[in-house]
Task: inverse folding
């Protein structure tokens, strides 16, 4: 951020943490060497705000970075303050620039292949969106993806990910069944606990009909909220 064009602006900062559940699950159960490192999570730091530009006046901008747990930069998203200003790279120049950028992170560019490219034009600015891939050195079940976006002559987006090659590896059905059984057990415990607390609550209020009716609605609302909370927490596991 301190090397970006936005360092002199007063932008708001947010910090978040995200975990790749699939990659963490794979690392726990199938990583050949326990000393090997996989980027199962990332710290995300995001700056947002408004700046003044000569051509567009007030403009909303964003600058964000992501780091793995070793401190390696694995994600970059930034707006270009002067995005509408040429010159542009030719396609061959843009590919070389993208590979040069990857090489700056000690990525072996000789082993990467260009898997996909998208070229867009906005006003006078060409945008190149490249996706490079290479086999992971950690396991043959994994692929390393490198996504680089160049707008004009500026790197505006970079993202490095390690993903599971679904053509080589899928999690056994027994593991999925075990996870589903655990979720069902958890839901059952919450349900029985909710019923017990609701019945106990009603018994204490039964002496007064008005309070009983109020308690009935309160108990129903609490039970529904408990179910919604558990369902939202475990929803991703059902996918």
Result:
């Amino acid at each position: 951020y301190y090397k970006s064009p936005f360092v002199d602006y007063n932008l708001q900062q947010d910090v978040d943490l995200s975990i790749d559940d699939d990659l963490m699950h794979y690392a726990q159960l199938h990583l050949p060497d326990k000393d090997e490192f996989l980027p199962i999570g990332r710290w995300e730091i995001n700056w947002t705000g408004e700046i003044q530009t000569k051509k567009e006046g007030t403009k909303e901008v964003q600058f964000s970075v992501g780091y793995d747990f070793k401190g390696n930069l694995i994600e970059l998203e930034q707006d270009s303050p002067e995005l509408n200003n040429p010159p542009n790279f030719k396609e061959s120049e843009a590919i070389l620039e993208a590979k040069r950028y990857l090489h700056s992170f000690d990525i072996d560019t000789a082993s990467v292949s260009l898997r996909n490219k998208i070229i867009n034009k906005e006003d006078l600015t060409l945008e190149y969106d490249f996706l490079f891939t290479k086999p992971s050195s950690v396991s043959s079940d994994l692929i390393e993806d490198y996504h680089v976006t160049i707008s004009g002559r500026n790197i505006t987006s970079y993202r490095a990910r390690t993903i599971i090659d679904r053509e080589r590896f899928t999690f056994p059905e027994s593991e999925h069944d075990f996870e589903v059984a655990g979720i069902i057990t958890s839901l059952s415990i919450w349900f029985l606990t909710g019923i017990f607390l609701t019945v106990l609550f009603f018994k204490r209020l039964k002496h007064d009909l008005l309070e009983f009716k109020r308690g009935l609605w309160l108990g129903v609302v609490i039970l529904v909220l408990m179910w919604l909370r558990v369902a939202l927490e475990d929803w991703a596991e059902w996918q």
Residues 173-205 form the longest helix (33 residues).
